[in-house]
Amino acid sequence: MSSLHIGWLALIIKPKEEKRAEENLSNQGYECYFPVLHSNLLLKNKPVIKKYAMFPGYAFLKSNPALELKPIEFTRGVVRVVRFGNEYPILNGRVIQSIRDVEQESMNDPKRESYKIGEFIVMNSGPLKDISAVITNNISEQRVEILYSLLNRAHTIQVNVDTISKK
User: Fold this and answer.
1) Are the C-beta atoms of 66 and 18 separated by less than 8 Å?
2) Which of 23, 35, 91, 129 could form an SS bridge with 54, CB 3.0 to 4.6 Å?
């Protein structure tokens, strides 16, 4: 195993166990960072800011030369420390600061959710409220085309992104 330097290690986190991993690492005295992005969302006709993991399944842990990796890898919620062979890549503070800057920018100015073709969504308002659909085309930044099924027939319409959310 190579010796560690001061900086940040990348951790692979178990799916849907980010909070557990963060709590367990913090309880052990580790400084960890789980970056998030903020985006605007409309739920029940009310604007809501939702947090999403910036790097789903990953987190960062402050390292130093005396850091023991075994307790980290046996922490509940953690899969392992990212490594390449016997080398553990160390991110310097500037990289982490730039990630924090992006996170802060998303907090100060949350953007609308972006949707990808093929992504499943649900309608939040209007006559199709609670209907599931799939994105078939991005018309503009504010509008998408969706495909939904009603009365055993497939239909496509264009909707405002404020009226839908990810499923």
Assistant:
1) no
2) 35
DSSP 8-state symbol, 86: T
Question: Cα separation of 124 and 30, whole Å?
Answer: 41
Looking at CATH, the fold of the domain delimited by 120-166 is given as: SH3 type barrels. (2.30.30)
Question: In this prediction, what percent of the chain has a pLDDT beyond 90?
Answer: 43
Q: Is 102 left (phi over 0), alpha (psi -120 to 50) or beta?
A: alpha
Placement of tokens 């046996």 in the chain = 74
- Strand-pair category, 111-112 with 36-43: parallel
* Distances in whole angstroms, Cα of residue 84 to Cα of each of 10, 29, 81, 94: 12, 26, 10, 22
Prediction pTM value: 0.65
* Burial class for 135, CB neighbours closer than 10 Å (0-12, 13-18, 19+): buried
89-115 tens-digit pLDDT: 999 999 999 999 989 988 887 766 678
